């Protein structure tokens, strides 16, 4: 939605909803600039029932694994391609995701691969570059963190199997970020 709305204001934008937010409901804020930097296409898309509606879109170029929701595939955003994969928690309410930019040759190789070859290719991509890890709860990303090459090297050395390294590094990066956020909150509360 356009603007910085309170939870109650956001709830009122939807027809057939109560007039006040339920306990635990919330809103997240992002600027159009931040979304565009992440290569999302952002458009002001008001309609008859929501005059402040804004859309941020990406396109699934190729879905490679699906179980109720897409679990792995290729995204296409403003001329760039990214792989996405659910690393942990496929059928659970909480799961860990990975997103990495790929080039056209990698896209072509992924589209041709299947089974174990596809998994090896994803593992190679996620183990060879910085990628974004995200923790989602009930299909909503709660926190994300960048997984650096140094974290990947440590995870590769410690992993029993190379396929586990991106999951281990993603989990560690999310824990580190969550700890930093919690510590910042504790510090702010003490002020």
How would you describe this protein?
The chain is built from 6 helices and 8 strands. It has about 190 residues and is α+β, with helices and mostly antiparallel strands. The longest helix has 26 residues. The protein starts with 6 loop residues before the first helix and ends with a helix. The mean pLDDT is about 80.
Largest sheet: 6 strands, antiparallel
Oligomeric state as shown:
single chain
Strand share of the residues? 25-35%
Low-confidence stretches: none
Mean pLDDT: 81
Record field, number of beta strands = 8
Per DSSP, the total helix count is: 6
Distance between the termini: 32 Å
Q: What would you call the shape?
A: globular
Structural class: alpha+beta
Strand order of the largest sheet: 3-4-5-6-7-8
- Share of residues in helices: 25-40%
N-to-C order of helices and strands: HHEEEEEEHHEEHH
Gyration radius, in Å: 19 Å
Give structural attributes.
191 residues; globular; 6 helices; 6-stranded antiparallel β-sheet; alpha+beta; two-stranded antiparallel ribbon
Brief account:
With 191 residues, this protein is of the alpha+beta class. It has helices at 7-12, 32-37, 104-112, 115-127, 149-158, 165-190, and strands at residues 41-44, 54-57, 59-67, 69-77, 80-88, 94-102, 131-137, 140-147.
